[in-house]
Specification:
By secondary structure, the chain is mainly α. The chain has one domain. 67% of the residues lie in helices and 0% in strands. Helix 8 packs parallel to helix 11, helix 18 packs antiparallel against helix 21 and helix 20 runs antiparallel to helix 21. GO terms for molecular function: hexosyltransferase activity.
């Protein structure tokens, strides 16, 4: 095995595909030997993918996302929450998030980005002029465009962080950059803010910057709550560290950094408007089984099975799955990598959550790449996600226009269960790698990196 991974030699699918361009890289090939380094190639691919994603929204863009009752929004597969929330959460009326309106169901970092983007949209539209028939609709389109740009930057940050987390595997960033999930879901909502923060937090952890890792987790949790799950994964890896005392000190700094960053970002808003700040928590506590979740699919296919309180089922299933992850981490023959446990933790959260929107899969993307960077496994999983992406919009076309359904409720429910099965299968592959470390494609390279920097003596565990 060489000291640096080449996909055309390391990945069977990439090796087969390389035959079209001359075959696998030779023994003397050097990564990044020219200007087009693996990272620059990944960034270029990401820019193309993100641009194609925006272009795919063009049918809705031309119609200004005027109303959800417009079937074009659904049949053209171009829906985005962004322009609608500009109109529906008071931004178009000049309201300040959390203060003037208490119905914004997003954490404070996402709310702040929305507020700044709203100001930017209004400023840009004022420069362009108010010749539009409906200024509010025009501003909502500017709001989407600014958001799309910010999400693109966030995606590029995630690509860079993924490529650099295991330096001897610089091509892994391409698996994020070329993802169908990134193309389809990048601009549906603001999830890439948390994805970027989480990706850089993992990078900071691998670079022995536990305090900064914690700060980034806190920032990510103030954008979407799921990055907090990284703390549990980190706790499990330090429990298997060679030098637990040193590792626990680092984990303590990570936890402190998370708490400090989260409180610093949330406390001012909570102090100024408790009701506005708490809207996110109220909304998620009160909602029932919603689109995309296994519970919603079961409710369609077997409604009698969900007579009990859905919250108790969610909590119970979640505790069981997280308990199994703890047992797995403790019985594994070698200490699991952080990315493996983080992927399993976030996957478990999505599998039992009351809602699983299409863009939530972006949470898993960099984690899946770091946990199992193989084209075949990642593509099989994402094919199921693409199938669900199509089915949810076709289902919602009939949901908003019941007289003209495009697919039945049962077909939609089976598409949900298909994505559940695909994610469970990918989790199974990662679990197999944990129990049989010789199958893990990342571990040899991560351990070489650890050895080079003497990280094992400091109690750290490869990412």
């Amino acid at each position: 095995m060489t000291s640096t991974a080449f996909p055309s030699r390391d990945d069977p699918v990439a090796a087969a595909a390389s035959e079209w361009i001359g075959g696998p890289a030779g023994r003397h090939a050097m990564p990044g030997g020219g200007w087009w380094s693996p990272l620059r190639i990944a960034l270029a691919v990401a820019c193309v993918v993100l641009a194609l994603g925006v272009i795919s929204k063009q049918p809705c863009h031309e119609r200004s996302w005027e109303t959800r009752d417009d079937r074009t929004v659904w049949t053209s597969l171009c829906y985005s929450d962004v322009p609608f929330l500009y109109q529906e959460r008071g931004f178009a009326d000049g309201a300040v998030a959390y203060l003037d309106r208490t119905d914004l169901e997003y954490p404070v970092v996402t709310g702040a980005v929305m507020q700044i983007s709203a100001y930017g949209a209004q400023a840009v539209q004022s420069v362009l002029g108010s010749e539009a028939e409906n200024v509010t609709l025009a501003e909502s389109v500017r709001f989407y465009e600014i958001t799309a740009l910010l999400m693109a930057v966030s995606a590029l940050v995630a690509v860079v962080a993924t490529a650099r987390t295991v330096p001897r595997r610089p091509w892994d960033g391409l698996l994020v950059a070329a993802s169908p999930v990134l193309l389809l879901s990048a601009t549906i909502n603001w999830d890439l803010l948390a994805v970027a923060a989480t990706s850089v937090a993992i990078l900071a952890w691998t670079r022995e910057r536990p305090g900064w890792a914690g700060v980034l987790i806190g920032v990510g949790a103030a954008a979407k709550l799921y990055p907090v799950l990284l703390l549990g994964a980190m706790l499990l890896v330090v429990m298997r560290a060679p030098d637990r005392r040193t590792a626990f000190r680092g984990f303590g700094r990570t936890t402190a950094g998370t708490a400090a960053a989260w409180v610093a970002l949330n406390a001012p808003v909570a102090a100024l408007s408790w009701d506005g700040w708490a809207a996110f928590f109220r909304f998620n506590a009160e909602r029932g089984a919603d689109f995309g979740s296994a519970w919603y699919a079961i409710g369609i296919l077997a409604p009698d099975l969900l007579r009990d309180d859905i919250d108790r089922l969610v909590v119970g299933a979640g505790l069981i799955m997280l308990g199994l992850i703890v047992v797995l981490a403790m019985v594994a023959p070698e200490p699991p990598r952080l990315a493996q446990l983080a992927f399993l933790a976030v996957a478990a959260f999505l599998l039992v959550n009351k809602v699983w929107s299409p863009q939530y899969t972006l949470w898993l993307l960099p984690l899946a790449v770091l946990a199992r960077p193989r084209w075949r496994e990642l593509l099989v999983w994402q094919v199921a996600e693409v199938a669900y992406f199509i089915s949810i919009w076709f289902y919602l076309a009939g949901f908003f226009d019941p007289e003209h359904p495009m697919i039945s409720s049962e077909v939609y429910a089976w598409s949900v269960l298909l994505r559940v099965a695909a994610l469970l299968w990918l989790c199974g592959v990662v679990i197999r790698d944990i129990l049989r470390p010789e199958n893990d494609p990342v571990r040899p390279y991560a351990e070489m990196e650890s050895h080079d920097h003497s990280r094992g003596a400091k109690g750290a565990i490869p990412a």
